[in-house]
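Hi W.,

Here's what went into the run:
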Amino acid sequence: MKKPLPADLQRWSEELAADPRSLAFLPLARAYRRQNRPDAAMRLCLRGLEHHPDNADAHGLLALLYIDRGDYARAADEWSFVLRLDPSNFDALRGLGFCHLENGELQQARERLERASLIRPDDEAVREALRFVADRMDAEDARAGSEPWMETPAPAGTAEAANDIVSAAPEPAVLPEPDPWAPVEQPAAGSAPRAGQPAVQAGSAFAVPDPARLFEAIVTGPVLGALLLDTRGMVLAGALDDVGGAADALAAVLGSVTGEAARTAAMLGLGAWEGLLIEAGSAVLHLAPAGDDAVILLVARSGAPAGWMMRSAAHAASLAQEFLEAYA
Amino acid sequence: MTARYTEALDRLSRVSGVAGALVVEARAGLPVAVDVASGVDSGAVAALAAAMYRGAQRAAETGGYEGVHTLQLEATAGHVVVAGAGEMLVIAVAERDAQLGLVRLETQRAAESLR
Amino acid sequence: MRVAELPRVVEALRAPIQTFVRESRARIALVVTGSGQVLAQHGFARRYEVMNVASLAAAAHAAANALGRLTGAGPWQHLHHAGSRQDLFLATLRTPVEDLIFVVIFDTESSLGLVQLFFGRLAEQVAQLPEFRVLPSEQTTQQTFERDLEEGLQRVFQPDAPGR
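Here's what came out:
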């Protein structure tokens, strides 16, 4: 708000004196707040709201005045009311996000701030806050301890994958291999989980799946592998055996590529990105968002039919969703 | 030289649903030849699509998949197709309902003609 | 630019220049006055002698302006130096108060296209900053303004009549 002229102040105050229902209370209250006269601003705002109880801007200003006083609870109430009147009010979403953050309510803070960032992706305060929330949540997860993906026993035999990508279960070999998502008996020590290994129980009654096998059902035909990544470029699940140890490096680089894709779509007015198809000399890569904070990478041999890629991608998306709902 | 670029874009820009066709210098991300409808910011398209392509190239190298020849971004309100042509890129911006197969084909043909 | 305004201006430039560096992936960006004073910077400053870069940028700005006048080319918009390892981009950052100089050093992580694109956005943002707004011709001192505020309040909150 630019600094009001004295003539503006006079005009607003005369209007309001002549008619207490005038909306001139709003710019006048803002002017008083800007001049560090919060009590006067508050009086004006509260009186204006008596006549205009559903004025979202007035409630928003009142929220700011409460913030000036350090009363986060009342500020949050006001912003909540604004959102009932106007669910996509950026200032209210941001303000409420910060109130939640102040109270240590990280999940709620993240939800509000993410909605705010959809409305104004370039708002620096929202971006910083989201980074802060992400760091705090990671730190809390680390303190709580992440779910252990336990070691698996040596392979009993190699399972053959079904040819039909619609049917999920691989053919059993010498010993029946359990459903990767079902509990099994015995933990073993020493070896890290690898794709194709049966899942192992962690010593509790709950099923502990092997995340590397999440996309086993679709890794068939020209599809070489699939990964579920978070938006920071870290692998959450899946396997990509053809690149050996470079899967993590590939995931890291693709984290930034998906950021570029989202930015390009948004800045060119094309909306939200839905997919990125990268056709290289010896492979085709398909990336697609999986919810707000994960990405699915599908890799197939060069020349894979585009329709099959899309179908596999859709199947991967539903597998990823189940995984994220259950374990993220 | 410029005529060669504009010829390459001629067929592409006529595909139904294409809102913009560009030849872009890949390294600088600057447009060299442009045929865009009003409302398409050719500078932004060139810079952002070239940056995305560069990222994709880096990913392909990391995975050992050889060079990227085509990149296709799908979004809720449109698509961007990028095809490599040596030091240049051919870029098409298309509406959501465009015939994507045809857009890809003509983008790749245009890139082929410039290699 | 008045000395008294400097801290506010510097603070106001902080967020736009940080956004620029992040979005464009430049190594460093500086906002410099015509006399070579650095108003704001963000990025990897340690590698560069920032004060010298700023002074030379101001000199290059003045020289390019003179060249533009001599050749009839008019005010220049930007200069680009394509180095073997890094590129340099200089542009005029126009504000209502004075023209500033925007200096960017970038490498292969960025591109001239990205730098130009996000410079355009930064320039629009800076032009809108209230710290750069010229005061209206009807100037008033702070005390006069306070008096007007007080009179306004008295006008509005006249002793409340019943039923008001």
